[in-house]
Design brief:
The complex is a heterodimer of chains A (288) and B (229). Chain A has 288 residues and is mainly alpha-helical. In chain A, 49% of the residues lie in helices and 4% in strands. Chain A is built from nine helices and three strands; from the N terminus they run ααααααβααββα. In chain A, β2 and β3 form a beta hairpin. With 229 residues, chain B is α+β, with helices and mostly antiparallel strands. Chain B has ten helices and six strands; from the N terminus they run αβαααββααβααββαα. The chains are: A mainly alpha (288), B alpha+beta (229). At the A-B interface, α1, α2, α3 and α4 of A face β3, α5 and α6 of B.
């Protein structure tokens, strides 16, 4: 078997292959023997075919151009066909060389870009972290836990424990759903309400409890959030902007413990943990 | 106080690369402070050109001092960066930069053609490279290095492409004029050689000026044999 030596490089296209062949000849592009180049190019394509490589259409176009140039060279000058009839007809050799030179320049530019790419990869910017001159503060505690809320509502309820003098027993005017509407109305109007403001109008323990249950219900439905801007600051209630619209219509709007009376919605779903906790606390010391 | 040193201090502690406009805003804001003295107030209306000139001077001074870092302008924003040769230690310090994989040879060639010739249509790129560029164009567009910039006023109104700010950032270039050998490559006006090509097979005539390749080490043969007497 004959010596079988294959050195195969990956060529980006016919121009790339031509440049490689020219480089192998160690001649200037302008002085290259195109006839010889044509032969080499076609040999190369033959090799590709032998190796069962798919030959891209561009290679075949180039091969035919080279064959055309080669055949043209064989004719004496006066018999050479001027393609377009007039002198504007491009000399195919010149056209090819022009293309090769242009491609070569961009190939060089590409390798310059590559070195820039690597240099860029190896430069590190000075990016200091923001100097923090302010005193270290404990991390803001935006979300309020159920226990914070219970503490707060207990403080509100203190107002009523001292009032021991006899008074009229009146019908509870408020339902949780009414309070929900009131809370939402206040929030739509003012955007942000403090916890104590919600209870400022409350006249009885049961009203406080009603409002509180409304609050818990709204939190459960993710309609509003309670935040504490700073440690020990008053709890503030705002609308849950991110999910204000995510209230699904199938969700029961208000579940109300039956002991608070006048219940418009049947409490088919069990009260949530929060409401349950609050109502147990309430039933223990209900003055009514 | 020299403007360039003020700018140096600003860039030294800046958290991100700053454009000349942003630097000017800093100067203006400083002058707005209550305790601003005459020097600070005097710089309130510094012109952008003056800032640029001072920065360029500063960069040149850093370059001349041959420090391990330099002041560069990338895509219009100034920052201090280390010299590439210190990468081994910095990689150990901060870890390898999170960067997309390096560009392939076809991608680099295509990108070079677009960079120098923008706005350019896909067909024109293909003409220069001699191959189909659909795949590489898509890669370049996906990586945000190339974008469509308009349509060519020729038949079919094909899209034209140009490079993005990310392209400049990716290669650490100040602007398109900063591309290596930009003038030469931007437009190679190809004219037919004045004299017809020789009929001699394979021997083209001397190329016109604008196509001349700068010959790396031309194989000089006869010159070296000096006539000895």
């Amino acid at each position: 078997m004959a010596e079988y030596k294959v050195k195969f490089e990956v060529f980006e296209g016919p121009l790339d292959l031509l440049l490689y062949l020219i480089k192998k000849e160690e001649v200037d592009i302008y002085e290259v023997n195109l006839t010889k180049l044509a032969t080499q190019f076609i040999e190369y394509i033959e090799t590709m075919r032998l190796l069962d490589l798919e030959i891209a259409g561009e290679f075949l176009v180039m091969a035919s151009t080279l064959m055309y140039i080669k055949s043209r060279e064989l004719l004496p000058v006066e018999q050479q066909v001027q393609v377009e009839g007039d002198d504007e007809g491009e000399d195919p050799r010149w056209e090819l060389i022009r293309q090769l030179v242009e491609y070569k320049k961009f190939k060089d530019a590409a390798s310059k870009l590559q070195s820039l790419e690597i240099a860029r990869e190896n430069t590190f910017p000075r990016l200091p972290i923001k100097p923090d001159f302010e005193a270290e503060r404990p991390a803001a505690k935006p979300e309020v836990s159920i226990f914070d809320l219970l503490n707060a509502v207990n403080t509100v309820l203190q107002r009523f424990t001292k009032r021991d003098d006899p008074r009229d027993i009146f019908e509870d005017k408020w339902t949780v759903s009414e309070k929900i509407e009131l809370v939402m109305k206040a929030l739509t109007e003012r955007g942000r309400v403090t916890f104590s403001e919600l209870f400022a109008q409350a006249a009885s323990r049961s009203e406080v409890v009603c409002t509180f249950l409304a609050l818990l219900e709204l939190i459960r439905l993710k309609q509003l959030v309670c935040i504490q801007p700073e440690p020990f600051a008053e709890i503030e209630v705002t609308r849950n902007v991110g999910q204000a619209s995510s209230l699904s219509p199938s969700e029961p709007v208000a579940t109300e413990p039956s002991e608070l009376g006048s219940n418009p919605v049947a409490p088919e779903s069990a009260p949530t943990q929060e409401t349950a906790a609050a109502s147990t606390q309430e039933t223990g010391e209900n003055p009514a | 106080m020299d403007l360039k040193f003020i700018l140096e201090s600003i860039l030294f502690s800046a958290q991100k690369p700053l454009s000349v406009k942003e630097i000017r805003d800093v100067l203006a804001n400083a002058a707005e402070q209550d305790d601003a003295d005459a020097t600070v107030k005097a710089l309130k209306k510094t012109k952008e050109d003056d800032v640029t000139a001072a920065l360029e001077q500063l960069a040149a001074e850093h370059e001349a001092a041959q420090r391990s870092y330099r002041l560069v302008c990338v895509a219009g924003s100034w920052q201090f960066v280390t010299q590439p040769e210190f990468a081994p230690w910095l990689k150990a310090l901060v870890g390898v930069k999170a960067r997309p994989p390096r560009l392939s040879q076809p991608a680099l060639e295509t990108l070079a053609i677009i960079a120098y010739r923008q706005p350019i249509t896909r067909a024109e790129v293909e003409q220069i490279r001699g191959v189909n560029v659909d795949g590489t164009m898509q890669t370049l567009t996906e990586r945000g290095l190339v974008e469509s910039v308009g349509r060519a006023e020729v038949v079919g109104r094909p899209m034209t492409y140009g490079t993005t700010a990310l392209f400049l950032d990716y290669f650490g270039l100040r602007g398109l004029e900063d591309l290596p050998a930009a003038d030469e490559l931007r437009k190679i006006v190809v004219e037919k050689p004045p004299a017809p090509l020789t009929a001699d097979p394979g021997l083209a005539t001397a190329p016109p000026e604008q196509l001349a390749l700068q010959n790396e080490e031309k194989t000089s043969t006869p010159d070296q044999q000096e006539p000895t007497r």
